[in-house]
Design a protein that fits this description.
By secondary structure, the protein is an all-beta fold. It has no helices and eleven strands.
């Protein structure tokens, strides 16, 4: 059974940095694209970032471009999301997802983690 477990969330002040990690228990991790999505209270889930199977292609939402960096380590079955210059509007539950292509659309992802809370105070 495929399982994704996120970690690294927390409460930080605006302007701070935070790194999220996601560990995947899946065979052939390198065969899957991976993504990060987030959902703020009262809002729909939205795309944050994605990485292709080998990590050579990345995709970011305009709202995080230049501040967030997605990376993966296929030897360790993990992906990370390094977040700089955090803003209060980045407050949300962050989910990692495993899928077929590094898309901004949730329908291309088949497995989701339980999420980790990120709260940014002003």
């Amino acid at each position: 059974q495929v399982q994704l477990v996120e970690s690294g969330g927390g409460l930080v002040q605006a302007g701070s940095s935070l790194k999220l990690s996601c560990a995947a228990s899946v065979r052939h991790f390198h065969a899957y694209a991976m993504g990060w999505f987030r959902q703020a209270p009262g809002k729909e889930r939205e795309f944050v970032a994605a990485t292709s199977r080998g990590g050579g292609t990345t995709n970011y939402a305009d709202s995080v471009k230049g501040r967030f960096t997605i990376s993966r380590d296929n030897a360790k079955n993990t992906i990370s999301l390094h977040m700089d210059d955090l803003k209060p509007e980045d407050t949300a539950i962050y989910y990692c997802a495993l899928g077929t292509i590094a898309s901004a659309y949730a329908r291309y992802y088949t497995t989701w983690g339980q999420g980790t809370q990120v709260t940014v105070s002003s």
